[in-house]
Amino acid sequence: MKTVIKFLRNQQGTETVEWAIVLGIIAVGAITAAVAIGGYVSAAFQNTQAAFADSGSPIYTAPGG
What is the secondary structure of 1-65 as a DSSP string? Predict the structure, then answer.
């Protein structure tokens, strides 16, 4: 029983665990944001590509043609 009480009162290493949790939350947030924004960025590039293709711009060369 004394060993359990001693273990529960030990505060060594708790700051490291706290920082690991914070880092994990930040990583999950960054990944979520990248996935959420990815679709919008892809759509914007596709719209820009379509606009260049429809405009007949000499800058744009259609793939395969």
Answer: -HHHHHHHH--TTHHHHHHHHHHHHHHHHHHHHHHHHHHHHHHHHHHHHHHHHHHT-TT---TT-
